[in-house]
């Protein structure tokens, strides 16, 4: 995304842009949510990385051993060393099931699943195809996690999936969260709690997990509370990449301390951080990275020209929440404004409704995959959707 | 929202967190703790002091961080402030609701 933005503004030969990526494929991670329910097939969510790299940008296929920020060097796993003038860290976040005792033992991907990896999501699809029912527990280990609404969507889609398979009465769905309600923001929580009740999804809040007991099939929290399961779908602790830890650039979860308005690293002026890799208090969502990219492009150009950075990023996030049955909610929020009712993107017109279930929002969610592959990765601005949040058309 | 405790008026937000740490006193903490059936012991006080100093240094608080703080482990933290230890202890310490949840 940043390479696609920057290669248009930075001329060669003064500037060379290099992307380091160890993978050959790029995954549409929001698709992991749909894979278990046979809504998407694997080929819908995987593409080769090469097709998204602009012609005048180098792609180096290697892992990263570490970043030596004091000497402006990146040491690659293949032994090569790259020098940089400006570094953008976009190493993302990933699950760390090893953080919770018992989570990753023999039951892993047999009765205890994640859906935040391709392998987990696919294994879960195969399990659900043959599962005959029982207690399904959908669980969040600790915050922050990527796409904080995904576990809720999973619970809603599971309700819909089992209804369609005429086996809903044989499945008891429980949503377990360390938060005190369905979501982190009060107004959205109210709307979502209501939907959970309507769909007969039981919620267990304020649950801080200590361990998974996969032999007796229960999760146990630090206060001694126990929740039994037949099938546990958990979102493990999310952490930044290990290379951040090796480089001494991260906090206790390997996220890089970052200025939340400029996206510049707090420790090094010539390092900027995009997306899930940072510790800023915004949602770890694809839309956030997209909005950040527009502001970050400008700030990197300012940095190069020795101008003051724009303190413009407001934490803007825009998320569709699948609620099952071909409907979805849409929420739009930032650091200071929680999601509220209203219309999007045109004030008073829509066509999308904020914080209300509708079929149109569901179509929006499905269309988003196309937007992701064809606009987001290529750094194309989405018409009518601004990087900072608009207040018009919202009911604060 | 205003509340009168120990003859002093304090200001709380809609979720019951003090809006101004300057209004906090140890007596107020004792009273707030009573609402959760907690009698503050020396161990409670050590945790509350730690939370306040982290807050003053702008360190974002999370259960994970407190567990690694060498002040208290998570098990004991739960025993001291049952149910929602981070939220309850923050309330008693007079600091804002921890933003570790987005």
Tell me what the structure shows.
The complex is a heterodimer of chains A (396) and B (102). In chain A, the strands form 9 sheets. In chain A, strands 10-17-11-12-13 form a 5-stranded parallel β-sheet. Chain A has a 3-stranded antiparallel β-sheet with strand order 5-6-7. Chain A is 24% helix and 25% strand. Chain A is globular and about 65 Å long. With 396 residues, chain A is α/β, with parallel strands linked by helices. In chain A, helix 1 (2-9) runs parallel beside helix 7. The two termini of chain A are 33 Å apart. Chain A folds into 3 domains: 2-22 and 62-92 and 241-313, FAD/NAD(P)-binding domain (3-Layer(bba) Sandwich); 97-238, FAD/NAD(P)-binding domain, CATH 3.50.50; 315-396, no CATH class. In chain A, strand 22 (342-346) and strand 23 form a beta hairpin. Chain B is mainly α and 102 residues long. Chain B has one domain. Helices cover 44% and strands 8% of the residues of chain B. Chain B has helices at residues 26-34, 42-56, 63-67, 74-80, 85-93; strands at 2-5, 8-11. In chain B, a hairpin with a 2-residue loop joins strand 1 (2-5) and strand 2. In chain B, helix 1 (26-34) runs antiparallel to helix 5 and helix 2 crosses helix 5. The model of chain B has no long low-confidence stretch (mean pLDDT 89). Chains A and B meet through loops of A and helix 3 and helix 4 of B.
């Amino acid at each position: 995304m940043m390479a696609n933005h920057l290669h248009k503004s930075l001329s060669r030969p003064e500037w060379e842009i290099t992307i380091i990526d160890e993978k050959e494929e790029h995954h549409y991670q929001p698709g992991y949510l749909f894979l278990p329910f046979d809504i998407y097939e694997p080929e819908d969510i995987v593409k080769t990385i090469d097709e998204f790299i602009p012609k005048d940008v180098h792609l180096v296929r290697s892992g990263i051993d570490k970043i030596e920020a004091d000497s402006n060097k990146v040491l690659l796993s293949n032994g090569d060393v790259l020098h940089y003038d400006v570094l953008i860290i976009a190493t993302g976040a990933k699950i760390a099931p090893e953080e919770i005792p018992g989570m990753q033992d023999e039951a892993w991907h047999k009765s205890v699943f994640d859906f935040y990896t391709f392998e987990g999501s696919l294994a879960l699809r195969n399990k659900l195809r043959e599962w005959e029912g029982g207690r399904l527990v959908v669980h969040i280990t600790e915050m922050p996690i990527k796409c904080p609404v995904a576990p809720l969507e999973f619970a809603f889609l599971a309700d819909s999936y089992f209804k369609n398979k005429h086996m809903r009465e044989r499945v008891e769905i429980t949503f377990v969260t360390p938060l005190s309600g369905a979501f982190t923001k009060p107004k959205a929580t109210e709307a979502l709690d209501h939907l959970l009740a309507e769909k007969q999804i039981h919620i267990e809040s304020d649950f801080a997990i200590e361990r998974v007991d996969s032999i007796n099939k229960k999760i146990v929290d630090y206060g001694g509370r126990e929740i039994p399961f037949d099938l546990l779908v958990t979102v493990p602790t999310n952490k930044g990449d290990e290379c951040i830890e090796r480089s001494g650039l991260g906090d206790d979860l390997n996220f890089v301390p970052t200025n939340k308005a400029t996206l510049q690293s707090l420790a090094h002026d010539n390092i900027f951080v995009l997306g899930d890799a940072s510790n800023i208090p915004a949602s770890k969502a694809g839309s956030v990275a997209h909005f950040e990219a527009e502001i970050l492009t400008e700030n990197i150009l300012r940095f190069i020209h020795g101008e003051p950075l724009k303190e413009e990023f407001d934490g803007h996030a825009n998320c569709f929440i699948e609620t099952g049955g071909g409907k979805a909610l849409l929420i739009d929020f930032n650091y200071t404004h929680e999601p509220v009712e209203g219309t999007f993107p045109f004030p008073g017109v829509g066509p999308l409704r904020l914080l209300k279930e509708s079929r149109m929002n569901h179509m929006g969610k499905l269309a988003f995959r196309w937007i992701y592959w064809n606009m987001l990765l290529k750094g194309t601005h989405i018409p009518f959707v601004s990087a900072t949040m608009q207040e018009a058309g919202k009911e604060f | 929202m205003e509340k009168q405790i120990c003859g002093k008026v304090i200001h709380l937000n809609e979720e019951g967190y003090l809006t101004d740490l300057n209004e906090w006193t140890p007596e107020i903490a004792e009273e707030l703790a009573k609402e959760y059936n907690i009698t503050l012991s020396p161990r409670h006080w050590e945790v509350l002091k730690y939370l306040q100093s982290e807050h003053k240094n702008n360190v974002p608080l999370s259960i994970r961080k407190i567990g690694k703080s060498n002040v208290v482990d998570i098990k004991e933290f739960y025993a001291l402030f049952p149910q929602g230890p981070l939220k309850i202890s923050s309330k008693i310490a007079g600091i804002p609701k921890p933003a570790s949840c987005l």
